[in-house]
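Supplementary Methods S3. Complex input for the magnesium ion-bound model.
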Amino acid sequence: VQCGRSDELEESRDKATEGHGSGAREVPPGLLEKLVYDALVWCSLHGLVVGDKSVQRSGTDPGIGLVHAPFALLPRPLTDGYWRQACELAPIFNELVDRVSLDGKFLQDSLSRTKKVDAFTGRLLDIHSKMLEMNKREDIRLGLHRSDYMLDAETNLLFQIELNTISSSFPGLSCLVSELHKNLINHYGKDLGLDSRRVPGNTAVSRYAEALAKAWNEYNNCSALVMVVVQTEERNMYDQHWLCVMLKEMHGVASIRKTLAEIDAEGQVLPDGTLVIGGQTVAVVYFRAGYSPNDYPSESEWRARLLMEQSNAIKCPSISYHLVGTKKIQQELAKPNVLERFLENENDIAKLRKCFAGLWSLDNIDVVKSAIERPEFFVLKPQREGGGNNIYGDKVRETLIRLQQEGSEELAAYILMQRIFPTASLSYLVREGICHQDHAISELGIYGAYLRNKDKVIMNDQCGYLMRTKVSTSNEGGVAAGFAVLDSIYLT
Ligand code: ADP
Ligand code: MG
Ligand code: MG
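Predicted complex, serialized as structure tokens:
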């Protein structure tokens, strides 16, 4: 029996891993029901949850209106080599962000035309200019980044989608999804032909907590706090709470949550640069808001952002780190000979360049022409974060033609990017307690943490991962935005 069974296992495993990155894996109906049920119980008991949008207070009051986070029932197969490649890139990108952040002129020049037509980016640049004028130095620099990738089916290359330097989300929940998958495979692995040891452990939340604690330590004031800048309503609050609970329990560092409006009302910077909010000294400002124009409904929020930037608190991110994460800078860094301005190591440069997809500014007339002719091969991206802002397909053509006809400077608000087409495969996506089987594609995010104090690099590491899976017919990929589900990796 053992023997026959293991043949079956081999077969189903081959099926599970056929083709690179393919997740095609049929689960028999009886087993599927059990898996979904157990998974939903597991999520509820282990805090793999978000606020339920049908409950009014779910975005403000913890403990009210919880629903499991959308998740993939089984982890996504990924070839070991791609996994290692993505992990290896993390410290190199961390260092790149730091180097670029120190070149204020590069940031200002690269974004100067964008600034004219994009008021939001303009406001960020204004704060950055003020800091340059003040000669503001950030000796202690903390970056909590997430570099996102898709595996291009045609070239078999792992391409970077973007690098997030502000509000990289899901360090908390992504760890739980890996644990959920390990747990399900421990129970049902024999029937599924899967081995839980192939799901890499995910350290995102503990390593991010460690980075925040180490930064707090560098600030060297044991009564100071970490302040999490939050949106007024946040259904992804449990992801953030996971991090803060870790910070408190593993490192004894307390945190407070404040909106930008509250910071404006309660905050002040003392003559020595100390940031004080409601009488409490802030050592580290950790942004989980402030990346979108919606986060700045009035001047009050902009005042708060400027206040924090002027202080000597450690900003995660500083305004410079924030700007390095814009799509425009991603595109500028992909130009020939630009990486060489910031990095010395040729191997590192080659590794970064290998993961750059086609990226173009819209003053490249030939590329704009190609995009109008074949819009399906491009993505048109404004300088925005948080999902749901990019333009695809026929809208790329319409938008480009309109902007060209207007002869407007507005083209400078966007960049064009080569569209990546990952292999789609059948997946089980669970949302609001219901499991759907669909063709889906995945995006791999690798968390990175960087901390330095003057010349001393205290931390520069890969810190775990986020896999997100979405139906292949959907353009965008945000989980919070409702397009994707949280997933993990099954190494093959
Ligand atoms: P954001 O900062 O809003 O997350 P992204 O650049 O990550 O912006 O784009 C959002 C989503 O759009 C991605 O998660 C991905 O699903 C999709 N996307 C972005 N760029 C590409 C691309 N070049 N090819 C295919 N899909 C893309
Ligand atoms: Mg982003
Ligand atoms: Mg993104």
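The chain has two domains: 2-357+420-491, 358-419. The first strand starts at residue 49 and ends at 51.
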